[in-house]
Amino acid sequence: MLNKLFPKKCLYQQILIGIIFLVLTGFTQLQDPITIYMIGDSTMSIKKKSAYPETGWGMPFAIFWDQTVTVENRAQNGRSTKTFINEGLWKPVAAGMKKGDYLFIQFGHNDEVNTKTSYATPDEFRNNLTLFVTAAKNKEVNPILITPVTRRNFDATGKIVDTHVIYAQIVRDVAAKNNVPLIDLDSLSMQLLQKLGPDQSNLLFNHLLPGENPNYPEGKEDNTHFSELGARKMAELVLARIRIIQPELAARIIKGKDLPIK
User: Fold this and answer.
1) What is the tens place of the pLDDT at every residue in 17-36?
2) Does 164 participate in catalysis according to the annotation?
3) Does residue 112 carry a catalytic annotation?
């Protein structure tokens, strides 16, 4: 009878109850602790003090998350998918992952160089990435594939050169085949470096003059590894994509550190 007399009021009450339910449900889900595991190479890894100011992008990435998130950065300098497995670095990650966690996978720099012992053929690289993804899915962990971040390499005309053509595409292919979210950091970082140009882009990398830093008394010109600024910019590129492709994970980013990035 009241519904007939006050239909709009009842409708508003139902909508309000629904909104409250969604908010409370989302809040409860947000409180569930998760771990973000990061596996990859030196462009992502935690650096020793003796390497400062060289910084892996996984280092600033870790500070963006609220108290419900633990970041386990297991990336290691010089590793490929092959050596990460063969050296036993993958085993504790595979064992430690639990339902609801995330696995960020970024390799390629050391897999693609056929003069290194870390070299993995394209087929090996593809199979190893698939192994990581399958292991994560079997434990109801959320895998995210990341293409290898670009090197600072410009041609004579000032155009950035793609040095990861084959291996970055393999990452994209594995992501598509296995229905896994992809962060195309190769393309995103190339766009950033192209925008900055050959001169300004060196600020993102570990470039030091002789005598500028006690860790590198003779100076350093490294176009693969990042400065603190460069690592922060790469982390922001990754976070920007997370906000698009994984909004439920992005909800755990600390408010105020969620910077507008295009």
Assistant:
1) 555 544 444 444 446 999 99
2) no
3) no
